[in-house]
Amino acid sequence: MRTIKGIGVAAALLAAAVASAQKMPNCAHCGIPIPVEATGSRLVTVKIGAKTYPVRCMLCARDLSAQYPGKAEVRAPTDDPKQSLVLTSDDKGNWTSNLPGLVFLEVEGDHAFCSRWSRAFVSEEGFRRYVAENPQYKEAKPLTLAEWSQREGKEMDHQHMAGMEHGDEMGGMMGKLGPWSMSREGSGTSWLPESSPMFMKPLNKQGRYDLSLMGLATLNYTDAGGKRGDSQFFSNSMPMLMARRETGGGTLGLNLMVSADPIINGQRGYPNLFQTGETAHGQPLVDRQHPHDLISELTVSYSHPVKSGMRWFVYGGPVGEPAFGGPMYLHRPSGMENPEAPITHHWFDATHISWGVVTAGVNTDKWQLEASAFNGHEPDENRYSPDPISLNSASARITYNPSRDLSFNAAYGYLNSPESKEPGVDQHRITFAGIYSRPLANGDNLSVTGAFGRNIKAGQDSNAYLLEATLFHGPTSIFARYENVDKDELVGVPPGSYNINKLIFGGVHNVASRNGFDIGIGAYAGLYSFPSSLEPFYGKNPVTLGVFLRVRPSRMKHEMSGEHSMPGMGGM
Hints:
Structural class: mainly beta
Signal peptide: 1-21
Strand content: 35-45%
Shape: elongated
Keywords: Signal
Radius of gyration: 26 Å
Largest sheet: 19 strands, antiparallel
Number of helices: 7
Distance between the termini: 48 Å
Oligomer: single chain
């Protein structure tokens, strides 16, 4: 009953968060939900071309207008409810106002992620009166329109994010482990290139906590061919609710991730030719991908600066991801659109759900060194209830981001008896990965991951190689993944190690965007190459075909290209 109650509370939190996200629009500049008191007649809007966008404050209005050439019109409230402000800029960025005595107040604080805000006053007298009523702003000086507009395009540093430049993605969404864009942070404590596309829904701030929703949900139909293939409807779902706040001179982060896999897919998961690992009903899964646990992550993290440019951090919880391998496949942009799990999963990122994990590390803007103690046992067959929590295994990982477009990681781990069907058989695992992100014209992006993994157990080594890529082109994503892996756990075939090759490719097109979420329809195909000795069991040329419906948060970005509006923003 306690487990069921906990699951109900987690589901209610996610439902409430999603519901609250529908009530408020997001700022088109910083991506943060606009507070209730700033809507209606108090809403600040920016008109660029034929579209009008809501923003949080005059600073966001100014900086958003500065990013795009041509004329812009800003409408905003002032301190006088009877006099609204109308600002217009010409092709050269020169501003004019309908209020001759206009002045601005621009100060630190009060902005959920950004550290500055700006507001307008009909006259300097109104400015003085406001400052007298709010002594925390006593040092602020009134800015004329000319002074205010000269700051245009120079305030993106109000986000305090290393390396962020005007027009970069992610607005003011900051990471939990350091002063960078959240786009750098992958699953657990892993890193991605900072220029990676980010799909996230900012939610309404709760007290001092900034909330956001990430992850995806898919409904798939697959027909895995060959003699051992099967057809089935299945789901991939892994929504994550994240909370973040500044406290004690550092940053506190909370993560809750759940999955509907066990509800929709059942204990046996879904067909995935040549996939190995884990069990159902006491028997090894055969050519099937296991479901994820209903509660897949429940962790807390805290990071704190040590000295200039260096920070320490801790991360952990009853279920989470240790510092082992790279970002999990559903959390790396190169693999997230692909609806099938890699058959190399148990060589790279199978520990992303560990019942018991504690990680400690240090980082700079380019390096991160970390170590974990965690539960090396694979999750048991009951995907609904918590597993016994243990810290019986260990790992270490080093990550290097030489630029905004590149991330490299290497890891080593000892796993205590990971497979239930091989009790007492320990493993050692070595992984290397390189991740590349290439921002392209019109907001497009190419994301690529190459990875190598080696499992060592009882004197046997098995290797796995993976190369995957996704091109995000407007509303369409095109993906492909190639894998080469030594499989020594195939069931129902003569004992031995078999070298398997798999190529899966496909695409997904967003057919609708609603309230900051994208709805896409996609299709894919999988091809295989393997030793001829397996043909009596799998057939000569099995082919996997599939179609799917995908829902995920829209991409966080500033770019406006062609007729595409910003995520979550409709014409007003």
